[in-house]
Design a protein that fits this description.
By secondary structure, the protein is α/β, with parallel strands linked by helices. The protein is built from 12 helices and 11 strands. Strands 2-1-5-6-7-10-11 form a 7-stranded mixed β-sheet, with helices on both faces. It has a 4-stranded mixed β-sheet with strand order 4-3-9-8, with helices on one face.
Length: 298
């Protein structure tokens, strides 16, 4: 079995930087990042700081096929990311998309006909970013695998070896589709509510009305999951509430940070995706439809 020795990452943001720091230490000559010329110039000049330490990453040489490609951009930049990584994907390249939502893998599969695409997502405490300075407490986990992981494929085993070498926490759910929906429901309740109210996680934890708003949106998402016969849909809202209550009360979701900074949000991959699926199934999702309308209007 071929070991993963050359890894490239696109999306040196809050999530990407947390992973890049560990991968560079583990693969000092094998880890690179993809960035356009303007971004490269800025990174050469300023580097990027994680918890006060500056990192300078090498850039991926043109037309070099990589053993692994990590996509860690915002969902709004996925099309551009696919174009950028395409020259670096060969028949045996393992691809992980760490974007929020439940359909980035389908989009990538339609566009990239090479490589071995695994399902994956990042779940952890949020990063805080100001310019090129990122702070993170190191609490996170990468969930990844095939749709069905009762037996691990060779691609999954290769990633396990890399993550253990790099000290990257991971889990391999038996049912990866169900796991993706669990993360989706957490985002539906947590990211959207904090963005609508412009309040940190502690507000959800302490304010009954805020938690009720999150619950209403998550319950709609769970209803859609049940209609799709997603495994364990009945347990997802309870699990999501447990996750929300465990978060740093002062932390802010990425969507809240986007709203406060005046950046485009990922509302289309949360409420937008849910509303589209609900329309196809004939399900009512009024709370999420309202969230979509409000956050799209900012």
């Amino acid at each position: 079995m071929k070991e993963i020795q050359h890894v490239t990452l696109i999306g040196l943001g809050a999530v990407g930087t947390v992973l890049a720091a560990r991968l560079q230490q583990s693969l000092p000559d094998g880890f690179t990042v993809i960035a356009d010329e303007e971004r490269q110039q800025k990174l050469r000049r300023d580097g990027i700081c994680l918890n006060g330490k500056r990192y300078d990453f090498a850039f991926t040489p043109l037309d070099t096929v990589q053993d692994m490609v990590l996509i860690a951009t915002k969902a709004t930049a996925l099309d551009e990311a696919i174009r950028a990584v395409a020259p670096h994907v060969g028949p045996d390249t393992v691809i992980l998309s760490l974007l929020n939502g439940i359909d980035s893998e389908q989009t990538i599969a339609r566009r990239l006909k090479r490589g071995h695409l695994l399902y994956s997502y990042f779940l952890g405490h949020p990063s805080m970013r100001e310019g090129n300075n990122i702070s993170h407490d190191g609490q996170f986990c990468i969930y990844f695998g095939e749709a069905d992981n009762r037996q691990h494929s060779e691609a999954v085993t290769r990633v396990v070896r890399l993550f253990e070498q790099a000290g990257i926490p991971y889990e391999i759910p038996q049912d990866m589709i169900s796991a993706l929906w669990q993360k989706f429901i957490i985002n539906i309740g947590c990211n959207q509510t904090t963005a609508l109210l412009r309040r940190p996680y502690g507000h959800l934890q302490q304010n009954e009305a805020a938690m009720t708003l999150a619950l209403r949106m998550m319950e709609e998402a769970a209803d859609v999951a049940r209609e799709l016969q997603i495994a364990e849909a009945d347990q997802m809202v309870v699990r999501a509430v447990e996750v929300i209550r465990s978060m740093n009360p002062e932390g802010k979701s990425s969507m809240q940070q986007d709203v406060e900074a005046g950046r485009p949000t990922e509302i289309d991959i949360f409420a937008g995706t849910l509303c589209r699926i609900a329309d196809e199934l004939g399900c009512a999702v009024p709370w999420n439809r309202a969230a979509l309308q409000i956050l799209s209007a900012l």
